[in-house]
Amino acid sequence: MARIEALTGDEVAAEAMRQINPDVVAAYPITPQTEIVQNFSQFVADGKVDTEMIRVESEHSAMSACVGAASAGARAMTATSANGLALMWEILYIAASYRLPIVMSVVNRALSGPINIHCDHSDSMGARDSGWIQIYSENCQEIYDNLIQAVKIGENKKLLLPVMVCFDGFIISHGTERVELLEDEVVRKFIGEFKPDYPLLDVDHPLTYGPLDLFDYYFEHKRQQIEAIDKAPDIIEQVGRDYGRISGRTYGLLEEFNLEKSDLVIIVTGSTAGTAKATILELKEQGIDVGILKIRVFRPFPYQQIKEALKGKVAVAVMDRSASFGALGGPIFTEVRSALYEEDKKPLVVNYIYGLGGRETTVEHIKKVAHDLLNIKKTGKVENLVNYLGVRE
Amino acid sequence: MPSLKELSKKEELISRGHRLCPGCGAGIIVRQVLLATDVPVVAGCATGCLEVATTIYPYTAWKIPWIHSAFENVAATISGVETAYRALKKKGKIDKDIRFIAFGGDGGTYDIGIQSLSGAIERGHRMLYICYDNEAYMNTGIQRSSASPMGCHTTTTPPGKAIPQGKSENRKDLTQIIAAHHIPYVAQACPAFHMDLIRKVQKALSVDGPSFINILSPCPRGWRYPANKTIEIAKLAVLTGFWPLYEVENGKYRITYKPRKRRPLREFLEAQGRFKHLLREENKQFLERLEREVEEREREIFAKAGEQI
Lengths: 393, 309
Ligand SMILES: Cc1ncc(C[n+]2csc(CCOP(=O)(O)OP(=O)(O)O)c2C)c(N)n1
Ligand code: SF4
Ligand SMILES: [Mg+2]
Known about the structure:
- Chain A folds into 2 domains: 245 residues, Thiamin diphosphate (ThDP)-binding fold, Pyr/PP domains (Rossmann fold), CATH 3.40.50; 136 residues, Rossmann fold, CATH 3.40.50.
- Helix content of chain A is 40%, strand content 19%.
- Chain A is built from 13 helices and 16 strands.
- Chain B has a single domain, classed as Rossmann fold.
- Chain B has an 8-stranded mixed beta sheet with strand order 2-1-3-4-6-5-7-8, with helices on both faces.
- In chain B, a hairpin with a 2-residue loop joins strand 7 and strand 8.
- The chains are: A alpha/beta, B alpha/beta.
- At the A-B interface, strand 3, helix 3, helix 4 and strand 9 of A face strand 2, helix 4 and helix 6 of B.
- Bound molecules: thiamine diphosphate, iron/sulfur cluster and magnesium ion.
């Protein structure tokens, strides 16, 4: 019996956390994530969750406390944005390498400086090598669905990895949408109980967490960590199918939209996927067909699936909502291109950096990308490898 | 309070074979602290000599559950462990009584970790924070910290022609900063006064809230003295007024050891190479400045306890 409600992204994230009912939440406010912390604090105050909440004095301590709590054997969650995520940086790596399945909402916001509170993906993209699984959400429904799945993905014994559920600041975090919510009981049954094998609090079997690990063992431990995250695609897909059974909404690593109808493709992630879909439908009426490949999971990068999805395509535009200074294009672009390297017949690939610092991305922008793709197909040439959408040059 | 004889029969919770330098104050302190515990303890450590030397993978010297995550966050990390404990206990998943101790060096406590510590104790977690204060960043090669006393030699405050005194600034009074949080128990201790130290740890662990003990931790390597002099030098620190032993229990100050006759600070300084330059005639003004500073701070603490030095 699904409930239907109108909620903002932050509200639905807090609601998912209420249903997950974690043992420990340690969090610190930052726009545009603040409402998650506030709403969850109210749940705690009203006794609607069993959670012990730690109102820490910084995000660095939020992640450190989550590391402590998860090592102890608790299910731990947090949420942050931009500068808060940057302040956690050091501990993000520690959480992942201690194999702690912490789940965190990252409400995407541009990194300083100059300071800016609006959306881009520079925060989570910067954390892409920290060892966390990263799932991006297009809308409020996906935030909810992704958070619940994240618990089950991260806690899978083959993985034991932390998961970031990313969504666009303000655009989604503060936009009210229709969402279907599951019953509390259904959610709790789906995620099950967290039963870690080696909790720190097992005083009868004392363990040392986080020793000094030098040249003689560190490399093997990193190799194991790589192996673990390499197993994640299968498990994410499995959890996505299982979730489909309880919700009617099945998830994979990628989402295809109008893809088989066209040899032109736009690759996009986050809320802009919604704008892109609407644009594609409009263009369809004008007789232009462009496909969309939405990246839901960026870490681990689904290169195999992307390669498959792009078979036989002629031109691909990759949209990046972050810059990688001094690199050949944005982070999604470079990874997509590298995924295609072994292919005998590769599509032409072009990059669009867009929406930095919350700059609006409209239907007109997507139309321009679509027309550029048509042109690339016609001429067989990519004029500019890296383009900037909506910037004053 | 158990007798020394009884304590000597207790199981050691930190094993031999760790790789702290011979004579390191930190190892002695951890032994004394853990001897004071009667219920299961979970410990955390900040990055630093103690952490590095006791847990070189695949070995560990800790016979109790132990966690290290980073340099500046042991208080936050243990606050997470303690919170998890409360959450799991509430749900009936844990039935044991467990205590939590965080160990940090002076760098990890006075400097980079002060925010994490201040936050954790303000939030009221039931945890004991022990600072083993060796008055510099020893693990990275004896650099100054805000606990290094004025006039000492460190590798980032070397005495030279332009700056003959070495470190120019007075050390920070962290114990007082922590006392200003008005938590149930705050103390200063020293491994040369082991029964005093153990009593303080027992008191700290018995309070239902945060507690903090700052323990002077002589370091043969950084203070430049022979490894067999650790306890002697630790004792001189107390007898000269350099490291007063006191506690603040629910706001009430008490001097726990009052030297019968205050010995000259010089005796403490002369025993260590790090103050060698300070004892030269041409640096007399700096020596006097340090003497004044030490006496003023000691007087201040004694006054709070209603006593005179
Ligand atoms: C964020 C960060 N900055 C710097 C370091 C390097 N570092 C490791 S231990 C240490 C000094 C530790 O000093 P202290 O806390 O006094 O402990 P000690 O080694 O003296 O026992 C430093 C600077 C680090 N590990 N992490
Ligand atoms: S350098 Fe000093 S603090 Fe570090 S292990 Fe050696 S004696 Fe102990
Ligand atoms: Mg030190």
